[in-house]
Amino acid sequence: MKTTSTRPVLVFFLALLGLTSCVSDSVWLPKSTGVRLSSTVQLTSPSPPGFSLAHFPDAKLTPSSCASCPDASENLHRLGALERGALNLSESRVYSQATVRTSNKRTESTSREDHQDDTLPISMTSLTSGVVWSSESSCPRLGYYCPMDASFTVTVPENHATMISFPTFVMQWAYYTFRYGFAELSAIRADGSTSRIWRARSQVTILPEVFHTSVRLRVFVPSNSKLTKGFSMRFSIHSDRETPPTVRRGVFNCSVPFFPAFKQHLACNLKAECEGGEDENSDCPFTDRAACPGGVVVEGKCFTHVFRNRTVTWEVARRDCQKRGGDLATLTSSLQWQAFFRLASSKNLIRQMYIGLKSYRTALPRIYNYLYVWVDGIVNYRIATRVDDYTRFFNTICFMHKGSPRYEYLYYIACDEYLYQDYVCQITVHNITGNTSILLPPLFPGSNDGVNTSAMFVNNGNGSSSPLDEDNLMYVRCEDGHVTHNFLSCDTRSQCGEKSYPSQCSIESNGSDTNSVEMFPCDDQTMTIHYTLVCDFRQDCHDGSDESLCVHRQDCQAFQCHSGQCIYPGMKCNGVTDCWDGSDEECIRYLQRETSTYLLEPPAEVSFDTDQQSVTIRGQSDVVCPMTHYLCPDGFCFPLYTRCNGVADCAGREDEAGCQEVQCPGLYRCLSSAVCLHADHLCDGWPQCPQRDDEWLCQHDCPKECQCQGHAFVCSSRFPAASFPHLRYLDAADSGMKTRDVTGLSYLVWLSLRQCGLTGVTEMSLPNVRTLDLSHNDLDFLAMDVFLPLINLRVLDLSHNPLSVLVSHGSVLRQLSLGHVDLSHVLLGSFNSSVLSGFPTVTTLNLSESDVTAITADGFQYTPSLRVLDLRGSDVREYPRDVFLNHTHLRAIYADNYKLCCKDLLPEGFDQSNCHAPVDEISSCDDLLRSNSYRAFLWIFSVLSILGNLGSLVSRLFLVRRKSGTSFNMFVTNLSVADLLMGVYLALVGSADHVYRGRYFWFEETWKPSVACKIAGFLSLLSNEVSAFTICLITLDRFLVLSSPFSDVRFRKMSTAVACVLAWTIGLCLAAVPLLPGTSEWEFYSHTGICIPLPITRSNFKGRNYAFGIMIIFNLVLFVLIAVGQAMIYHSIRTSSSVAQSSTRKTKDLTIARRLVSVVVSDFLCWFPIGILGVLATTGTPIPGEVNVGMAIFVLPLNAALNPFLYTFNALMEKWKAREEDRLLKQLEARSQNLVDN
Hints:
By secondary structure, this protein is an alpha/beta fold. The protein is 23% helix and 18% strand. It has 16 helices and 52 strands. The strands form 15 sheets. It has an eleven-stranded mixed β-sheet with strand order 38-39-40-41-42-44-46-48-50-51-52, with no helix packed on it. The protein has a six-stranded antiparallel β-sheet with strand order 16-15-18-19-30-17. α8 (966-995) packs parallel to α11. It is elongated. The model is unreliable at 1-117, 387-394 and 588-597 (pLDDT under 50).
């Protein structure tokens, strides 16, 4: 054949296309080969590795630098003509022709079917074998269409045969093709005629076959068509003695010694084409017939192809693989991709197959929005995919593979579409163990187990100052070495030492002053968070209470999320959730089907582009990572912030191992995670932390007058607060700031103007303020309407103000969030709940120490939601009978008046144990005397005192008339009168108890200030003091009589009368002092229901000092005098016992002394305990309230009841005994005289 005739025209057209460098002289192989090559054969540039001209000594080759010529090796890899492992590309002799005889003119002649002399590209693998192929790249690309009519003939000499096989046959046409061409194989007879063996237009499976005649392969492409995928054909020439023996069609006897000559047609295609299976032995790569029959095995995975009779969805295919004990194929290493290509080429799968690749855009961190993840959770980095804009609208897409090895397509598909029938499953056949740890930069001490990483990491920093410098007070260094925002230092989620949720957080400063800020308590009481995190459009509290209260500005000029958050318009429908509520991605979604891909091999550095939000994977020759990255065992370098983020970046998941013990020395630790962030990635304009906290407060300033912790300021003097619109917390206590200084801070949630000298409150535009502290100011008048615009106000503190007037102007507005109002330590006097008419949601009201003595007739009807009421320290005496009856929400009451806890006042269903008021030890809600035992002993002592002392009076006035007892009798008579008054007092109290029995608490305020109660108390104090004074006089009288019986210094009748008058005068004065106009406010006798206050408890009351002075000090002085006098009497009696006296006189004096001692001892037993308890109570020693009851009912009246029996009835008994003794003595004397007389 001559080629010179066609060369001028061919060179002309190739010159037009810039392909003239591809034209060279013809090359012929020896005729004995029987193979006719194309008219021009050229070595591709660059040459395949391992190529040598010595392999083709008879070939005349013309090297060329043609850059546009098709690369034969690329074509072979695309079509699968060369099997990996079976035919090593680097060792093959690969050529391609630059000029295939195709139609040079796009005319009707190109469609004629008589162009039998056109040829196809060829690659010779030996002198007698080679590969022929056809594909899109074999077309010179002369236009939109690529018509051709090419052929290839294998001429078989006599006594020879040829073996033909087609590893790949996929005739696929461009989508704009209107007519389909074909490929056909024909046998050439000896006479030159042809006989068609087969013709195919699409994908078919063609078995290897032996022909003893020459064969011709023809490929026809019509003028309006283009071939996008083609075929590869292997051929070899064999002598008759070495012709492959055929057992049956497609199966051969491979036990012959010349099997290697035709092995290339059979080897390693996962099909038993040898009768004994020699073609699929252990020499085949990825083959393990025992562990994975019909599939390929690589790195412990078995890949098998599954074909269904009908189309299925990606999800159905995955479920089927899972039922088989595996999953869809995941290809995370180069070997796995090679095995996958091996399976695809062996199955002739130049068609669509589902694989286990998927997008998880809503489930993964946003840095992975442009990456795809294998179904086993490992991110795909080895296939670089081109992301189309349309695909970004899909939150979840799945993938299928389409193409041939080395050049393939990945199709984006909807996971629930019924599209294809093929998919590849993987099953783990054995586990692979190896290096399971990553290498960290040297800033992680001890993390690499002694491995020298100095050569593996380089510092690529820019040398600028780091946000994590020690002098940056916006960040703090925690105990384990990591850094976090200062406002997160008290957040348990930041791992900065806090084990529980604190109520306050200290602020670090360079100075000596240390302040703290309050923490925001979530409504469900499960946690506290910093106020900086409140109203940030992101839910931190479990119940969302940190966001549900917020009112956001309505001046959003961009896109506004449903939550109120503003984002840039370009962030809407970009496939990235920028609104915390996800409303920016509620979009109409479209799908772009196809995108091309190519394989990437490590070592490589992976970086996430912060501007374009894309992924850059930069290949490199050495495994060297920057200090901002860590190194995976497979050679990929990833940023530190991808470690322990819940996504497997390393192919073996090494980056997600040991995350429970992760520390971040010198790095920023992300909130609620184990993610560590290098300083270079902090405040870089793109969030890498899961909670985005690495981009918080990057442009934050702190005024010099304040200490700052995020958006929380603690300020000591005035500053321009309006310049900080994002302020959430402001503690301006003692700063001199006014309410007008903070108006307009729409995001302020907590505000304290404590001790700022406020004399008035102006209206404030603070829609989000939740806590407002105006305590310790100079407010004496306040209209509550000023707080109505604060729609989120929940806590209002007005305590410690001289507030005496609190009004409401009756506005129709209602504030429906205020829950806690503190009006303690003010000067209200009386409380009218109408001042809270604009705040019907108040649940806690503190009126302690507010001088409230009366609750108006409205009660608390304007606070229907009231749950807790504190009236401690306020002596509330006046209140309506239904003060609490209609408050069904009431749960707790604190008061000093026990009557407010009486059942008749409380609403139905109220638990009385939650009403906290001091128990009245004497009275109860029903009775003046709370106990029947109190009542019984009171009447016993009353009867004894009255009857005993009346008997004593009658005895002294009418029975005892001897002169020797004049002074003594007068004193005892006065003592009986005084003790009688005690009995009258007890009778009055007992009578009142009887009158008010069962309804006492309604009449307590009637009884205690009544005249009857005052008379009873007056009589009680008068009786006590006169009785004590009289006993003192009696002691003095007896001392004078017994110590100096013959002296004139003693009480006479007149002096006795004067002394008695003096005793009564003193008693009357002491008892009348509390009734004087100047002391009436003491309500001395109205303090208790028994009308006499004993100062023996720590409770304070007006006139307590007076009661203590009289009942404790004065009576103690009298008791001391009495005790001293008794001691002197005993001493006098003992000294005078030796002096001769008449036995009768001595007996009388000793009897009087014993009687007086009994009286004094009884007084001692009554007054000494009272005195001791009074002293202890004054020093602060706690005295149980029951002791007061015992002293008032059992001890105090005891002396009055016993005195008549001690000094009157006892004397009468002694006289009766003396008379009996005289009578008996006289009888004995008479009998004796009778005996004498007889």
